Amino acid sequence: MSSPPTTGVPAPDGAALRAIENLLHEWARAIDEDRVEAAAALLTEDGEYKVVSRFNSDRGLPLALIHCRTAAQLRDRIASMRVANIYEKHFYRHLISGVQVIGEMDGAYEVRANYAVIRIMEHDGAMALFSTGQYRDSVVLEAAGARFRRRHVLYDSRAIDTCLVIPL
Amino acid sequence: MSSPPTTGVPAPDGAALRAIENLLHEWARAIDEDRVEAAAALLTEDGEYKVVSRFNSDRGLPLALIHCRTAAQLRDRIASMRVANIYEKHFYRHLISGVQVIGEMDGAYEVRANYAVIRIMEHDGAMALFSTGQYRDSVVLEAAGARFRRRHVLYDSRAIDTCLVIPL
Amino acid sequence: MSSPPTTGVPAPDGAALRAIENLLHEWARAIDEDRVEAAAALLTEDGEYKVVSRFNSDRGLPLALIHCRTAAQLRDRIASMRVANIYEKHFYRHLISGVQVIGEMDGAYEVRANYAVIRIMEHDGAMALFSTGQYRDSVVLEAAGARFRRRHVLYDSRAIDTCLVIPL
Q: Is the ipTM value over 0.90, yes or no?
């Protein structure tokens, strides 16, 4: 799992970097505050949201845990989480670290960041380190604000406890 | 537990945002370096420090684990921690993530951030994820620097291990 | 374990602070992406990399877990990790928080930050909170970019699981 180092890449200015960081934080906060639908609105309509293991990614294996090719597919998944899925109620708490712009491609910024998600069960308050990994994002800065054109979640551990209900 | 999204809120400039972020980090570092008294000095004299569960907050229940209505009350609590409380010695390590200014009110910035606190016992080095949650702060930028007018700690899990000695 | 508060220290401008933060994130990402050699390149040739427990540091005890007095010594250690050491394959995921410039000395910035390192075993995906602590860095901003003149890793828990193979 390698990605190009930052050397030689012109850094975005302070305002652009703040907008990018804020986008990542807004996604996390929307999910943690149980406003998951608001996270989906941060993906461009033709955007891609994919959750894939580091193991598969390292070996070029295509299988993903979630693969939404449009924002509509992500909204659909969230609707099913609200309406159809049966699961014990829980929340996430995201920790995001090391937001870095490592390049530019086709008018979008290539962004990397580490994440850890803590899961808290509502019933008994059980807390667990649920998932860690790396966000591999392509971010566009539009008049209406920053949005994800691509959000790949590379998760570290193949051992996912029970199931992945809420998006990471 | 919802809070307004950032949409439509004018972002503070880079220097203001750095001052706000630094305030949150200074609080955390003061506690982690066992200079808890210095954290209390970051609260305005008429400031409020409250630690409340997400469960109670979501239901509008008023009970808080800690509720200091002035900086003097917080200093008092810290003095009691130093002098009166009996507990096994331990330290905290704070991780702060996603500092966002989500609005302005009465000359203060409304700020949100996620936290995780790791507790390390001095005797045997046992490490545990002790608490996660969200800081819901009101921050004023004064000539002397940034300070908290209000710091609400919304903690995720009602299952607190043993007791909360050191402020979060 | 105390260090001077930020009071009275002139803050670096936004661009300098971003360069410093990016240096810390680049170190972490290089290690997490299994490009550990690239982390060593972020230390000046006469730079020092030291990993010491909070317990020893608090008592002025000199013993360190790792003590590289030059970048060459760190490269040597990494080469031995690649070639000579026998261990179960695993990865790290770094979370960095609270990067603060707390002073200037001899043309270098004194920087503090908290870290948590999650360790993920490749075989079974077992995830564990492996180490937390504080980075105590001296950072120089050179024409070629930011680098560490000194990187002291103060780790919180003396109870290290099995052994420390990959640098923190």
A: yes
B143 in reach of chain C (CB within 8 A): no
Specify whether the CB–CB gap between C136 and C112 falls below 8 A. Answer: yes
- Contacts of residue C112 in chain B, CB cutoff 8 Å? 29
* Radius of gyration of chain C from its Cα atoms, rounded to whole angstroms: 16
Tokens of A160: 């996912």
The answer to whether the CB atoms of C125 and A100 lie below 8 A apart is no
Cα–Cα dist A121/B156, whole Å: 9
Phi and psi (nearest 5°) for A27? -60, -50
CATH for the B14-155 domain, from 3.30.950.10, 3.30.420.40, 3.90.550.10, 3.10.450.50: 3.10.450.50
Domain spans, chain C: 14-155
Contacts of C22 in chain A (CB under 8 A): 6, 11, 100
What is the rounded distance in angstroms from the CA atom of residue C128 to the CA atom of residue C46? 34
Radius of gyration of chain A (CA): 16
What residues have CB less than 8 Å from C127, skipping those under 6 apart?
A129, A132, A156, A157, A159, C118, C119, C120
**Sheet containing C127-142: which strands, arranged edge to edge?**
C66-68, C43-53, C145-155, C127-142, C108-121, C90-105
Residue B29 in 3-state DSSP? helix
Residues 6+ apart with CB under 8 A from A22: A146, B6, B11, B100
Residue ranges in chain B assigned as alpha helix (H): 14-32, 36-40, 54-58, 71-83
Rounded to a whole number of angstroms, the distance from the CA of B83 to the nearest CA of chain A is 31
pLDDT tens profile B140-158 = 999 889 999 999 999 999 8
Q: Work out the mean pLDDT of chain A and round it to a whole number.
A: 92
pLDDT tens profile B17-43: 999 999 999 999 999 999 999 999 999
